[in-house]
Design goal:
alpha+beta, four-stranded antiparallel beta sheet
Length: about 120
């Protein structure tokens, strides 16, 4: 687990790619209300999302026309530039890449099984 959203939802690396390092595994959200999503294709993309001010809740409910989205986080921007300088892209592109990963992998909801 990487963290939680404050409501019981969890963000985790989904170790589904055999032989790939953990930091290159997809990042998923497992919501307390049953929401599930692939948030990022890997840890570097998650870092850039957070640097751009987008956490799991903002990503799941993000409307591309919504001007109320948070702005960049200066300290996380500095960390992302240092740790993954070649991965800076607009949030929309990172989301598109995550959706591509989600489409390529087995259904996350199916893998988790029915809610308990």
């Amino acid at each position: 687990m990487l963290g939680d959203d404050g409501t019981g939802g969890r963000v985790a690396l989904w170790a589904i790619r055999d032989g790939e390092p953990l930091e290159q595994q997809p990042v998923v959200f497992l919501g307390s209300e049953g929401d599930t999503a692939v948030l990022a294709r890997d840890a570097a993309d998650l870092l850039w999302l957070l640097a751009h001010g987008r956490g799991p809740v903002e990503l799941l409910h993000m409307d591309e026309d919504d001007e109320d989205q948070p702005g960049p986080h200066p300290e996380l921007m500095a960390a992302a530039r240092e740790l993954a300088p070649d991965r800076d892209r607009p949030v929309e592109q990172i989301r598109t890449d995550a959706a591509t990963v989600a489409a390529e992998l087995p259904d996350l909801v199916e893998w988790l099984g029915p809610p308990r």
